[in-house]
Amino acid sequence: MNKFIPFLSVIVFLSSCTNEYISDGREVCFEQEVLPLIVSTCAREGCHNPATYEKGYDLTQYNDILRMVEPGSYRKSELYKVITSPFSPMPPKPYDRLSKEQITTISLWIEQGALNAVCMVEACDTSFVSYSSVVKPILDLYCNGCHAGPRPQGGVDYNNFNGVKLTVEDGSLISSIIRDGNTVNMPKNGNKLPDCKIQQIKKWVQDGAKNN
Question: Residue 61: helix, strand or coil by DSSP?
Answer without folding.
Answer: coil
